[in-house]
Write a structure and sequence with these properties.
Blueprint lengths: L1 E4 L5 H12 L3 E3 H5 L7 H9 L5 E3 L7 H6 L3 E4 L4 H22 L3 H4 L2 H21 L5 E2 L9 E2 L2 H9 L5 E4 L2 H10 L4
Parallel strand pairs: 1-3, 1-4, 2-3, 4-7
Antiparallel strand pairs: 5-6
Helix pairs in contact: 5-7
Length: 187
């Protein structure tokens, strides 16, 4: 299974709920995207996609094609506006920040400036990605042909998924996700 959509659309939440119901391992594509340039991402993707069962979740296109080709079902979460995605991303980062504060064992833990700065930078990057997804122009960060990271727009995603129409379910309402999860039995 492949779950794809904008940042803040609920990909990870849905993938984890599906994994809980069917026991499939979840492949978080953001983890693969963040690997260093020397890492053989293409080889790792081929190996993971060749497994019997998995749920891949992420927005990445291009290097994720082996997952798209092998997925029995592709769920495109296309139900969240740019504004709603941004609110969800901010909420997720606030939850993470609060969890970090709650886990602090000493005043020094609360003052780790480097961690807070990275957290704030990650939030800003995610907010920019949400805006770029919902507009027409893609942004590319450079890198090699095999490891360049292109932030896809909604239109790019639609074009890429059109090749997999027979296995594609385009989710345009939260109620559709709720119905999908209701139909799958919990363990």
């Amino acid at each position: 299974m492949f779950v794809i959509g904008a940042s803040g659309s609920g990909k990870t939440t849905l993938a984890m709920a599906l994994a809980q119901r069917n026991g499939f391992p979840v492949v978080h594509l953001d983890m693969l995207a963040g690997r260093p340039s020397w890492f053989d991402r293409a080889g790792e993707v081929r190996a993971l996609a060749a497994r019997e069962t998995w749920i891949a979740e992420g927005l990445q296109l291009g290097w994720t094609e082996p997952f798209l080709e092998r997925a029995d079902l592709i769920l495109w979460l296309d139900h969240v506006s740019s504004g709603r995605s941004t609110v969800r991303v901010i909420h997720r980062f606030l939850r993470g920040g609060i969890a970090g504060i709650a886990a602090a064992r000493s005043p020094g833990d609360l003052l780790r400036v480097g961690q807070r700065a990275r957290h704030a930078r990650d939030l800003l990057v995610a907010m920019v990605e949400v805006r770029r997804y919902h507009r027409q122009t893609p942004h590319q960060d450079g890198g090699t042909t095999t490891n360049a990271h292109v932030e896809p727009t909604r239109d790019m995603t639609a074009r890429a998924l059109a090749h997999h129409r027979a296995r594609l379910v385009s989710i345009r309402r939260q109620e559709d996700i709720d119905l999908l999860l209701t139909r799958l039995k919990a363990p």
